[in-house]
Design a protein that fits this description.
The complex is a heterodimer. Chain A has three helices and two strands, in the order H-H-E-H-E. Chain A is mainly alpha-helical. Chain A has one domain. In chain A, helix 1 crosses helix 3. The two termini of chain A are 15 Å apart. Chain B is an all-alpha fold. Chain B has a domain of 188 residues. Chain B starts with a helix and ends with a helix. Classes of the chains: A mainly alpha, B mainly alpha. Chains A and B meet through helix 1, helix 2, strand 1, helix 3 and strand 2 of A and helix 1, helix 4, helix 6, helix 7 and helix 8 of B.
């Protein structure tokens, strides 16, 4: 199911992401983080995490190294 | 599948999308602008609302340039390991309270406007033309902004302007992206033009307007923010010639040939003062 979200991110990268080329202030970047979060936590929790990361990636935050939570053993 | 995807992407942005559509309607029905000019006005309003963020970006760029020598140092230290280099840079930003210019949220704000325009224009295309007599044309060269861009020769002109403006805006926006990526982004619109050609001409009009705004903003920003990163490299190379050789392969290669300006000494002296201030601040 999480592949649906990953596909959405690829669509974003190929369309709007390409049209607004900016560098993210976080490492890994927001879209990279979203893919990692979706893989680790599934579609729902991964999407929430990615959404929260997007909200944090605003001009008032300081950015930094912020990897997605690790995948738990399945 | 498509519905689910659009739900995931669009649902959190729906209120913004409705707001954009209301503003568009207000511009047409209350202000009395034709639809095409309403789109231009809506785009300008959105970009004007984002101006405070731009001012913030200018400040952070100035701040960033003050720390250029130290950052160059980090880049050199971790030249082999790009990820480690990024991590260290991010850590440096955090330690020194630097706010990097780019962030993802402002970029996302423009998405609902795009979606609102897309739905509005799709609705126009379905309605009989008699409901919008003459008001869907733009500057006499596009008969209807609701039609596919390639349905009239005017659309091709708009597409050419789009590619040019997109390339120019990439030039101004992608200031921190590395050279290779920059070229890739520059040629992205050439590929993307085949996709965008199937969109209604009004959407392309939106892109052109927002790109031209970005270019204008970039021109003003460049005047406000002096290029101070160059002098730092110049000064270092005069002290330690070896380190300059090391720079040649990296992103600084393009900057090195620029002639030294009278500002350098004044600017390169600034970081020391700032560093002391920061240290003093940290002790508190």
């Amino acid at each position: 199911m999480y592949r649906l979200g990953v596909a959405a991110i690829w669509v974003w990268r190929g369309t709007f992401g390409a049209l607004f080329p900016t560098t993210c202030k976080y490492e890994p970047s927001c879209s990279h983080y979203a893919v990692d979060a979706l893989r680790a936590k599934g579609l729902v929790r991964g999407s929430v995490l990615a959404g929260w990361r997007l909200l944090r990636c605003n001009p008032w935050s300081h950015g930094g190294f912020d990897p997605a939570p690790p995948r738990l053993g399945r | 599948m498509n519905g689910v995807l659009s739900f995931i992407v669009a649902s959190p942005l729906t209120p913004l999308e409705h707001a954009a559509r209301h503003v568009l309607n207000w511009l047409h029905f209350s202000v009395g602008l034709p639809w095409a000019w309403s789109i231009v006005a809506l785009t300008v309003i959105v970009r004007m609302l984002l101006v405070p963020l731009t001012v913030k970006q200018i400040h952070s760029m100035q701040n960033l340039q003050r720390y250029a020598p130290q950052m160059k140092e980090i880049q050199k230290k971790y030249k082999q390991d790009k990820q480690k280099q990024n991590e260290e840079l991010m850590k440096f930003y955090k330690d020194n309270q630097i706010n990097p210019a780019a962030s993802c949220l402002p970029m996302l704000v423009q998405l609902p406007v795009f979606i609102a325009l897309y739905y509005s224009l799709r609705a126009f295309a379905k309605e009989p033309v008699s409901q919008h007599p003459g008001s869907l044309s733009f500057l006499h060269f596009i008969p209807s902004i609701a039609d596919h861009t390639t349905s009239h020769w005017g659309g091709f002109v708009l597409l050419v302007i789009y590619v040019g403006s997109q390339m120019a805006s990439t030039l101004f926006m992608a200031t921190t992206v590395d050279k290779m990526q920059r070229y890739l982004f520059m040629f992205m619109p050439v590929v993307f033009v085949f996709v965008i050609a199937r969109f209604p001409a009004g959407l392309v009009l939106y892109w052109v307007t927002t790109n031209l705004w970005t270019v204008g903003q970039g021109l003003i920003t460049r005047r406000l923010v002096p290029k101070t990163a160059v002098p730092a490299v110049e000064k270092k190379s005069s002290r330690t010639p070896r380190s300059d050789d090391g720079d040649g392969g990296g992103n600084g290669a393009k900057r090195a040939p620029e002639p030294p300006k009278p500002q350098p000494t004044a600017v390169s002296a600034a970081p020391r003062k700032v560093r002391r201030k920061k240290k003093a601040g940290g002790r508190r």
